[in-house]
Amino acid sequence: MTKLRIKIRKFIRQEDGQGISEYGALLAFITILIVLVFAFAPGKLGPAVSAAFSSVAQELNNQSDAASFASGS
């Protein structure tokens, strides 16, 4: 009976799987947040993301053009 009690205590104190469960909880929390954002801003999110990507693409094009001009190509 004592050996069983020692094994149970050792199992309870063991922290090997703790990291995986914490990552799982964090992933679940982030998923819930994303679902809530899509639920409360259904028509606003798509255009905002599209505008952000368009802005980044335009800036990259501007930088590419400036680099080409500076190199003489």
What low-confidence regions span 5 or more consecutive residues with pLDDT below 50?
A: none
Q: What would you report as the Rg, rounded to the nearest angstrom?
A: 26 Å
Largest sheet: none
Nearest-integer average pLDDT: 84
Q: What is the number of beta strands?
A: 0
Distance between the termini: 82 Å
Number of helices: 3
- Overall helicity: over 70%
Q: Please state the structural category.
A: mainly alpha
Inertia-based shape: elongated
SSE run: HHH
Strand content: under 5%
Task: Walk me through the structure.
- The chain is mainly alpha-helical and 73 residues long.
- It has a domain at 44-73.
- The protein is 85% helix and 0% strand.
- It contains 3 helices and no strands.
- It has helices at residues 2-13, 18-40, 45-71.
- The longest helix is centred in the C-terminal third of the chain and has 27 residues, at 45-71.
- The relative contact order is 0.05.
- The mean pLDDT is 84.
Q: How is the secondary structure organized here?
A:
Layout: H1 2-13, H2 18-40, H3 45-71
Write a brief structural summary.
It contains 3 helices and no strands. By secondary structure, the chain is mostly helical.
